[in-house]
Design a protein that fits this description.
Elements (H helix, E strand, L loop, with lengths): L4 E3 L3 H25 L11 H23 L1 H12 L3 H16 L13 H26 L6 H31 L6 H6 L2 E3 H7 L1 H13 L6
Antiparallel strand pairs: 1-2
Helix pairs in contact: 1-2, 2-3, 3-5, 5-6, 8-9
The structure holds protoporphyrin IX containing FE (HEM) (2 copies).
Length: 221
């Protein structure tokens, strides 16, 4: 790392991100086969259902392993997702002009995650839990649960699929293709961003880095 770079995502969180993303993509594609009636023929001999269950196991186990290895990071991440303030409202108001017109003047300084990233993170947590509860119900209680309860599980699983599926494409667009997010991709692959990018996109976080360093022997994330 040079003097002009700061570490944004540590290696364990990057590994978690990519394995978890792989599981999500598997679940999304095999879920799509079950969701769209015209694709039903692909699920006929049940191989997509098997892959869905393998994907689900990875989707559940990987964050649990991360939690065991690095509980402090999970605590900080959860706090971040559920702490919302006036600056987030300012971001939501300024975001359309920023993302569509490149007008940065009303964007408030952001923490380690900007409000949009926090929203995605919150959606991943809330709908991830709903996926697991309803998916486990469909998996293990298909024969024993009342029909109405099963219908609800399918309904909630489908709503989670639609919401996370739509936001997944927004996540990829903003993280990989948006012209202003020039260092987002390198941050989640190599871990680092330039000081200029940190100041511009995560000004509040950048200002707090020395404090965070003193507080924890390791860095955030
Ligand atoms: C497979 C395609 C994916 C790509 C190309 C991708 C790309 C990225 C990038 C570039 C970042 C860094 C953004 C930044 O810090 O500026 C990021 C962060 C993140 N990703 Fe992904 N991601 C993918 C899938 C996923 C999935 C499936 C999830 C959730 C299950 C996810 C959850 C997150 C979270 C919570 C963050 C941190 C907050 C944020 O930046 O939104 N990602 N990802
Ligand atoms: C994480 C834990 C998850 C578990 C345990 C789980 C489990 C299941 C099970 C058992 C089924 C019923 C399949 C069958 O009929 O054999 C199912 C269906 C489905 N899953 Fe998942 N799943 C999980 C996550 C996900 C995720 C992340 C997505 C998409 C992003 C997804 C999308 C779907 C869809 C669209 C269906 C079809 C529902 C319908 O019939 O309308 N699942 N899942």
């Amino acid at each position: 790392m040079t003097h002009h770079e700061v570490e944004k995502y540590k290696k364990p969180i990057r590994v978690l991100h990519w394995i978890h993303s792989g599981a999500f993509v598997l679940l999304f594609l095999t879920g799509l086969v079950l969701f769209i009636p015209g694709l039903g023929f692909l699920a006929e001999d049940s191989w997509t259902r098997l892959i869905h269950r393998i994907g689900a196991a990875i989707f559940i186990i990987i964050p649990i392993i991360y939690l065991i290895i690095n509980p402090k990071s999970v605590g900080r991440g959860l706090k971040e997702a559920f702490t919302w303030g006036a600056e987030d409202m300012g971001w939501l108001i300024a975001a359309p002009r920023y993302y569509f017109l490149g007008d940065e003047k009303d964007m408030p300084p952001q923490g380690a995650m900007n409000t949009g990233q926090k929203l995605w993170w919150l959606i991943v947590i809330v709908f991830g839990v709903l996926f697991v509860i309803t998916g486990a119900g469909m998996w293990f209680a298909k024969a024993s649960a009342p029909a109405a309860a099963l219908q609800w599980m399918v309904f909630v699983h489908d709503v989670a699929f639609i919401v996370t599926g739509a936001m997944f494409f927004v996540h990829i667009y903003t993280g990989v293709f948006h012209p202003l997010m020039t260092e987002a991709w390198s941050s989640i692959t190599g871990g680092k961003i330039s000081v200029e990018y940190a100041k511009k996109h995560h000004g509040k976080w950048y200002a707090e880095i020395p404090k965070a360093r003193n507080k924890f022997s390791d860095r955030r994330y």
